[in-house]
Amino acid sequence: MDKEERKTINQGQEDEMEIYGYNLCRWKLAIVSLGVVCTGGFLLLLLYWMPEWRVKATCIRAAIKDCEVVLLRTTDEFRMWFCAKIRFLSLETHPFLSPKSMTNKVANGHAVHFTENLATENRHEMSKYSQTQPQQVRYFTHHSVKYFWNDTLHNFDFLKGLDEGVSCTSIYEKHSAGLTKGMHAYRKLLYGVNEITVKVPSVFKLLIKEQYVMLHDMVAAHSTVRVSVCRANGEIEEIFSTDLVPGDVMVIPLNGTVMPCDAVLINGTCIVNESMLTGESVPVTKTNLPNPSVDIKGMGDEFYSPEIHKRHTLFCGTTVIQTRFYTGELVKAVVVRTGFSTSKGQLVRSILYPKPTDFKLYRDAYLFLLCLVAVAGIGFIYTIINSILNKVEIGVIIIESLDIITITVPPALPAAMTAGIVYAQRRLKKIGIFCISPQRINICGQLNLVCFDKTGTLTEDGLDLWGIQRVENTRFLLPEENVCNEVLVKSQFVACMATCHSLTKIEGVLSGDPLDLKMFEAIGWILEEATEEETALHNRIMPTVVRPPKQLLPESTHAGNQEMELFELPAIYEIGIVRQFPFSSALQRMSVVARVLGDKKMDAYMKGAPEIIASLCKPETVPTDFEKVLEDYTKQGFRVIALAHRKLESKLTWHKVQNISRDVIENNMDFMGLIIMQNKLKQETPGVLEDLHKANIRTVMVTGDNMLTAVSVARDCGMILPQDKVIIAEALPPKDGKVAKINWHYADTLTQCSNSSAIDSEAIPIKLVHNSLENLQVTRYHFAMNGKSFSVILEHFQDLAPKLMLHGTVFARMAPDQKTQLIEALQNVDYFVGMCGDGANDCGALKRAHGGISLSELEASVASPFTSKTPSISCVPNLIREGRAALMTSFCVFKFMALYSIIQYFSVTLLYSILSNLGDFQFLFIDLAIILVVVFTMSLNPAWKELVAQRPPSGLISGALLFSVLSQIIICIGFQSLGFFWVKQQSWYEVWHPQSDACNTTRSLYWNSSYLDNETKPDTHNIQNYENTTVFFISSFQYLIVAIAFSKGKPFRQPCYKNYFFVVSVIILYVFILLIMLHPVASIDQVLQIVCVPYQWRITMLMIVLVNALVSIMVENFFLDMVLWKVVFNRDKQGEYRFTTTQPPQASVDRWGKCCLSWALGCRKKIPKAKYMYLAQELLVDPEWPPKPQTTTEAKALVKENGSCQIITIT
């Protein structure tokens, strides 16, 4: 194969794809067109859903460089195909572009970054691409992203903004002045309009894509506003936001705005509400990007990244509430990304083009349909052979053979399957859970592990200040509860609490991070911000000022002698916040530079995670018992914040501080003490977690908080039981030529154990070995680790990671991307993972989980499949209950539709054998009156009131479901055949003709009139006969019988008798069919083409139906549920530990059929399909697992190749 014909785009990224080139082939197109006509459009529909077939059927392979169509295939596990048409962008016609210069710049479609010297740049590009055709640029669009041909790469590539490969220095030096009008027009031509367009499909498509309307409304709100931009010549021009391009310098208005793009601040400060993206309604302070060229020490010319520099980046869709600025210098930001490339655009793209949900139900549904197609094929061949042998006309053969296919593969199946999900969505809405991805409801029925964020999810949002513990002379003082007093008012400790925060006043109300608010309220100080008028009078940003209330300040006292009067304590005590380094979750700290009114030197204050703060302080200022004191607090579940301070050198002027790197400030500090905050559990948390544990659903905590605090909260809420052991995995990366290693500590023996021999044998978790996985007694131990250790384990201990996933319960200090990686790691061992978070840092994890539930009502919930109106985890069991009910409804409906197809298929096949068929109105009555009504009412069963330990089967190809369907098929076919052949054995039976008199015409004139009608309307299709009437009545009852048999209730749904619509519908249908069978009505019989049969045969048919019903119900509800399923569920209960969080549930419900079969064949022991179950089996016989206390696991030198590791015991 020519290398030109296959390439890879987006290499190494999540949306990596292989690309193939094709050209349109006229003769292939002509053949396909003919096929479309011959199949009545069916081929067109097939090719619409199969892009690979469509392209290969109409095109021939070509070099990608010169192709007309590209075929794309994702490189992930789904291997999905897409196709796109190559288009051409003409550059000659634009008034601002010079054909000889500008067009050469983009002839290859490669315009990633730009320089300011356009003339030089254009000459360089002309020489570089002199052999290209300058008039047009080739590109295609896929998932709202344009890919241009790049001659340098010999491949297609998407246009990047200023968010990749641009240094912080160049943003100031090359991009801060603005664009010329010519360059702006040129970039707009390439980047297109700055808008996030969600095209609302036609009414027909909206039937299956209702989500688009909501998305369209969401993005339309911020689509077009007027903005001011700076041009290279110093002018300020007002343009529409849709005209913005990367490189434009946007002026942020004083009264704020909704950001129409992603931009990096280069001047001034902004207060921003980012709830649209993060779910966190707390205003965030954004400062200008540090300029490395004026940095005192310099932090290196690092590349700008919106993620790394998010505290300096204004994201699209977020709201700028306030701005603070320099005199004569507006608040400016350089546009770095526009349209679908922005953070908001990427969010909308992830919703418009989600990853397919790889759920066994849907895969099995396709497989089951293929089986039905195979059955239809058999019927198709049988019909043709039978008709030819009976010398039927060719036209009738074609119609009847195609008819058997439409009967076997029910076209109403997708609508029927969707009904249960729609009803579940409606029920969820009633209890305050909103859903934007309905297909996920079914998947939620399979969840066997749920991850919870801690703060705001398991615990209350707000923190209460429990007290402080200051340090003096490197020793901790006693804890103090009251901070607001005269003794401490001028201490550095209180000064740090007063200044080291990101609080701001919005419309006169103090707002910001809840922790900062509680801390500031505890000291009772007052915060004052400069007004716009005050700022305008100075040539720099006026600092925010904090001061204590007057009643806390001691009175001015005169000194004892005359000389000291000059050194009286000033009556006014104020601190100005000169520079703020915002809190960073990566750094786990924040700091400020402040100055006390009248002091010459500035002060640096820092607060953050105690371990981090202590490491940045002078060792001699940190108390020796620091770790013990910290551990005591965290074990009690307190949230601990450490404070530090140092005096800055007098040479640091205000101007220098504005451009200094935080690394220069945040070191060599003096440790000042701890702030202890109390984070209370939500009232409903323990109860919900207990319900989940009883239901055999694992719970995991994922938090950004301290590990010991997290472990303490896990114990308090019942996630870890008092008798359970906690093993802390402390992973260290390779250093100084040494390999990566993991130190294992037992949480209860973390400080008191000096060597492994001192450990009592009872401290080692109990592990009971059994002969089979079903009888596994769960080992009661849990792993806990922080984010850094988790990353090291994923990178250097690939074979150990799955084992830790099996028993990992607490993951602390986890960054947002690490939360997503954890979800993926759990999914890699075949868990169905739910994620519940408040939306602050959980967006990625919420999207990645099988069932993500956001407790935030804000627009960030768009990132999550589910959003709870009530900020409580009680929504989790409710969602799982509804998911299980919806899943069982899907199974019931699918089984019913399968039986409906097979029953009708067999009815028609039997009648074809005598060259008969069901009549048109018989088909209509069955399809509309019976099937449609039953399908849409049997889906209305609500969810069962509580969660049970069993889980429903995950797929249709499972022992229980296959047995259910096959047994009912055999029963229905048996009784239908019985009626069909038995009627022929009756003494009154004859081949029916209009003069047949099986009912004795003397009974009434009814039948005489019927005969006269029949004589005037000849039955050319042989519909009217005794076999047809018998088969019609028996099959009509069979549809209702299997509907009742399949309408399962407990343990996943409410009993069917509580589904009043279903009960009433079935009763009405039963009464109606009984009425026309036992007491014929002439007009109805005439319409349905039913013939008269003796009353005795009617009673016989009734008896056949009653026995059929009895056998069907007994097999389905007694033999299947009471015997086979009960055996499986009892086996589950034997293997479960009631409150375990470490052992996954035994997912054998959908494997019991295979277990029984293997048992019958004498081979009980089989390797389970789920990886976590296989691992559980392995760990049972592993003598080295769990790791012993005070041992170390080291990675081998060739860790990158095989990820193997060895355990070394350190004594």
From TrEMBL:
CDD domains in UniProt: P-type_ATPase_cation (cd07542)
InterPro entries xrefs: ATPase_P-typ_cyto_dom_N (IPR023299), ATPase_P-typ_P_site (IPR018303), ATPase_P-typ_TM_dom_sf (IPR023298), ATPase_P-typ_transduc_dom_A_sf (IPR008250), ATPase_P-type_domA (IPR059000), HAD-like_sf (IPR036412), HAD_sf (IPR023214), P-type_TPase_V (IPR006544)
Membrane-crossing segments per the record: 27-49, 365-385, 405-424, 891-915, 921-944, 956-983, 1029-1047, 1059-1079, 1099-1124
Ranges for domain P5B-type ATPase N-terminal: 13-150
Gene Ontology MF terms in the entry: ABC-type putrescine transporter activity; ATP binding; ATP hydrolysis activity; ATPase-coupled monoatomic cation transmembrane transporter activity; metal ion binding; P-type ion transporter activity
GO annotation, cellular component aspect: early endosome membrane; late endosome membrane; recycling endosome membrane
Record EC number: 7.6.2.16
Cellular compartment(s): Early endosome membrane; Late endosome membrane; Recycling endosome membrane
Catalytic activity reported: putrescine(out) + ATP + H2O = putrescine(in) + ADP + phosphate + H(+)
Keyword Cell membrane included in the entry's annotation: no
UniProt-listed GO biological process terms: intracellular calcium ion homeostasis
Keywords: ATP-binding, Endosome, Magnesium, Membrane, Metal-binding, Nucleotide-binding, Phosphoprotein, Translocase, Transmembrane, Transmembrane helix
Keyword Iron: no
Domain of life: Eukaryota
Topology within the bilayer: Multi-pass membrane protein
Family membership noted in the UniProt record: Belongs to the cation transport ATPase (P-type) (TC 3.A.3) family. Type V subfamily.
Function: ATP-driven pump involved in endocytosis-dependent polyamine transport. Uses ATP as an energy source to transfer polyamine precursor putrescine from the endosomal compartment to the cytosol.
PANTHER family from the UniProt entry: CATION-TRANSPORTING ATPASE-RELATED, POLYAMINE-TRANSPORTING ATPASE 13A3
Protein name according to UniProt: Polyamine-transporting ATPase 13A3
Record lineage: Eukaryota, Metazoa, Chordata, Craniata, Vertebrata
